[in-house]
């Protein structure tokens, strides 16, 4: 990951630390993966990661991999709002109204994907996923989106015991959206599309979900365009807040 001239601040150590934090945006990362993602020398990456960990800007998971630290959550809270969640409300309401189905935004947190925003279908049979719900990263179209653009090692790890295959994820990358039929729960279908952060990494997934009887066995054919549009709106909103 080279720092472009426009992205560089002129303070080298800060720029390199920012590269490490950007690389951790996608989830738990080994030292080797950090080196590959940043293009920095291994000793430099290790020194920066340890220094950032001292200030709780970086942490370690139970497998020893580097993750974004708890101090970042505290700082984000102090800033007053989570930009993704703030932007998600009206986008999810519009998506729900356009499709007639419940809509959600998921983020990956370790081995889970967590619903951070939702707009429920007001009446009739629906797939209810309250904010804060933890779901598996091994099934569902949102999980496919959150995994499809990971690096090779994370991809292989994520596919272990997953309900979807490498071929499915290749299709997600090619199309730019995912669908599932009964993967997470029998009788439930979903369509999802990726949300990218300012660095271009996939940081969340926008989804709609509901009964297969209503979404049909090809839900992407009906709803992929509007779901992808909602994801693009959130991506653009995040880009603007970073400018």
UniProtKB/TrEMBL annotation:
Domain of life: Bacteria
GO BP terms: negative regulation of DNA-templated transcription
KW DNA-binding (keyword) present: yes
InterPro entries, sorted: GAF-like_dom_sf (IPR029016), HTH_MetabolicPath_Reg (IPR050707), Tscrpt_reg_IclR_C (IPR014757), Tscrpt_reg_IclR_N (IPR005471), WH-like_DNA-bd_sf (IPR036388), WH_DNA-bd_sf (IPR036390)
PROSITE patterns: HTH_ICLR, ICLR_ED
Designated name of the protein: IclR family transcriptional regulator
MF terms in GO: DNA binding; DNA-binding transcription factor activity
Record key words, sorted: DNA-binding, Transcription, Transcription regulation
Occurrences of domain IclR-ED (ranges): 71-240
Chain ranges of the HTH iclR-type domain: 11-70
Pfam families linked to this entry: HTH_IclR, IclR_C
